[in-house]
């Protein structure tokens, strides 16, 4: 069982807006920066959001991240079929010096 | 272009050992901390181990502490994971990932522990 809690699945139709949540505690999300990763089938994870809400170059601006208290969210607007993947949230716990991942959310584009 | 290439995976019996390598290129390896992250078949990501730039800070997940050893050779742009006393639960794809942000990942190497 993951320390960070994500819904196992999410879905939407093309063009819709979808939000994926990531819930933690004061010691992890509440005290550290949240990052998000996209994993397409059969490939390695790829950093999609860092620093809670920053997009690396090349990531479409349809993707946005936010954090409030002990929770974080990844929002995808204008959903496209190529967005179908598993999304993971993660933090680096500075106090424990260890990485902590959410269980992952499989996004399906209907 | 940043590249991380893992190698050394394979089939090993329970109780056996394996050494994974990660060859880095396209960036100044000695300036970045590194990690190993694993993913069991059909499961999520699990952080395994961390090593600082000059190897003065090393940390492990509780699940591998005392059995796995992370190390690096900055002169060879290489990261390693020595895995001893392997168990069925260690079966996974092992990724090396750069920095505490995990901003770049290798393609992974599969470790299968089975008799």
Query: What is the number of E strands of chain B?
Result: 10
Radius of gyration of chain B: 13 Å
Inertia-based shape of chain A? globular
Question: What helical percentage do the residues of chain B reach?
Answer: under 10%
Tell me the radius of gyration of chain A: 13 Å
Can you write the helix and strand succession of chain B as a string?
Answer: EEEEEEEEEE
Unreliable spans of chain B are none
Class of secondary structure makeup of chain A:
mainly beta
What is the structural class of chain B? mainly beta
The helix tally of chain B amounts to: 0
Question: Which spans of chain A of ≥5 residues are poorly predicted at pLDDT below 50?
Answer: none
Helix and strand pattern of chain A: EEEEEEEEE
General shape of chain B: globular
Protein described:
The complex is a heterodimer of chains A (110) and B (115). With 110 residues, chain A is mainly β. In chain A, 0% of the residues lie in helices and 45% in strands. Chain A is built from no helices and nine strands. In chain A, strands 1, 3, 4, 7, 8 and 9 form a six-stranded mixed sheet that branches. Chain A has a three-stranded antiparallel sheet with strand order 2-6-5, with no helix packed on it. The radius of gyration of chain A is 13 Å and the shape is globular. The model of chain A has no long low-confidence stretch (mean pLDDT 96). Chain B is an all-beta fold and 115 residues long. Chain B has strands at 3-7, 10-12, 18-25, 34-39, 45-51, 58-60, 68-73, 78-83, 92-98, 109-113. In chain B, strands 2-10-9-4-5-6 form a six-stranded mixed sheet, with no helix packed on it. The radius of gyration of chain B is 13 Å and the shape is globular. The mean pLDDT of chain B is 98. Classes of the chains: A mainly beta (110), B mainly beta (115). At the A-B interface, strand 7 and strand 8 of A face strand 5 of B.
């Amino acid at each position: 069982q993951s320390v960070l809690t994500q819904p196992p699945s999410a879905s939407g139709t093309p063009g819709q807006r979808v939000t994926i949540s990531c819930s933690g505690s004061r010691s992890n999300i509440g005290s550290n920066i949240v990052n998000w990763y996209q994993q397409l089938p059969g490939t390695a994870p790829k950093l999609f959001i860092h620093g809670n809400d920053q997009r690396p170059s090349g990531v479409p601006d349809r993707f946005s991240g936010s954090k409030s208290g002990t929770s974080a969210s990844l929002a995808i607007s204008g959903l496209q079929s190529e967005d179908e993947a598993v999304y993971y949230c993660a933090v680096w716990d500075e106090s424990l010096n260890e990485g902590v991942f959410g269980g992952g959310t499989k996004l399906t584009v209907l | 272009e940043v590249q991380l290439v893992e190698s050394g995976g394979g089939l090993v019996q329970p109780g056996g050992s394996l050494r994974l390598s990660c060859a880095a290129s396209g960036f100044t390896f000695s300036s970045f901390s590194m990690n190993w992250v694993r993913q069991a078949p059909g499961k999520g990501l699990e952080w395994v181990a961390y090593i600082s730039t000059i190897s003065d800070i090393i940390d492990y997940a509780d699940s591998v502490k005392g059995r796995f050893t992370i190390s690096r050779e900055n002169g060879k742009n290489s990261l390693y994971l020595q895995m001893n006393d392997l168990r069925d639960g260690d079966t996974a794809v092992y990724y090396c990932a750069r920095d505490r942000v995990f901003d770049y990942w290798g393609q992974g190497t599969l470790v299968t522990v089975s008799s």
